[in-house]
Design a protein that fits this description.
single chain, mainly beta, Jelly Rolls, five-stranded mixed beta sheet, 1 helix, 17 strands, disordered N terminus, signal, F5/8 type C domain-containing protein
């Protein structure tokens, strides 16, 4: 991921957690693989999203959070430490207003090879999942559950696998069928924390829907796809096959 993208992500996280968050000032999981994505939505539920590895106890997760002043968690949607599934909670303010939040913690554990991840109406990419699992979204659009929809800088999708793999095959679609005009990174990692760039797709590298193939380093156990620089186009990722 280039320096511009890192700056954009950091800026988005800062403003989301300090100026625009209606309820949460911050939310942190010790040992998480990613920074916490804290996104305020005006017309729909706001979102907290992060990714952890398989070493943490998902049913008793050590979470630290801080609410903004004059805010409290509704007694009808109390917050406990079991994040096996995503949570829907309500934040109340002293002025009588309230805001709904979705808290999404993905526990990413290695899947067995060959690994086939294909989303559809019968196998949706949504927040009804049960942890742990071999894939994790990060800021993706869950309202488009038949694909992994990416529509902003820094949005990503993570996959973990359990043994040396030779290649990853996947489909990228430019929504609307146009020629791609942004930057899209595919990266690998040994531990899910330190990442190296495998391929950057640049303007003109694919059009419409294309099936793409990349060789994988033998020591890698994680792959992630990141929309590094968006230029007014949404991207769909699907039909991932790692062997």
């Amino acid at each position: 991921m280039n320096r511009k993208t890192i700056i954009l992500i950091s800026t988005a996280l800062f403003f989301s957690s300090t100026l625009f968050a209606q309820g949460f000032a911050n939310f942190k999981v010790e040992g998480a693989l990613t920074q916490t994505l804290l996104k305020n939505n005006n017309k729909t539920a706001s979102v907290i999203e992060t990714i952890i590895d398989g070493t943490l106890d998902i049913k008793n997760l050590p979470v630290k959070y801080k609410l903004l002043s004059n805010c409290s968690i509704s007694e009808s949607t109390s917050l406990n430490n079991d994040y096996t599934k995503s949570k829907q909670i309500t934040i109340n303010k002293k002025d009588g207003s309230s805001k709904d939040w979705n808290i999404i913690v993905h526990q990413l554990v290695p899947g067995k090879l060959p690994l086939n991840i294909a989303f559809s109406k019968t196998n949706p990419c949504n927040t009804d999942f049960t942890n742990p699992k071999s894939w994790a979204g990060y800021g993706i659009d869950y309202s488009k559950p038949t694909v992994v929809r990416m529509g902003n800088d820094g949005i990503g999708f993570f996959v973990a696998y359990d043994s040396p793999a030779q290649e990853a095959t996947f489909e990228l679609t430019v929504v609307g069928g146009a020629t791609f005009n942004g930057e899209f990174d595919v990266e690998t990692s040994v531990d899910g924390k330190k990442w190296i760039n495998l391929k950057t797709y640049k303007p003109g590298d694919f059009t419409g829907t294309e099936k793409l193939n990349l060789s994988l380093p033998s020591d890698a156990r994680f792959v992630r796809w990141v929309y590094a620089a968006r230029e007014k186009q949404n991207i769909n990722l699907n039909n991932i096959y790692i062997k």
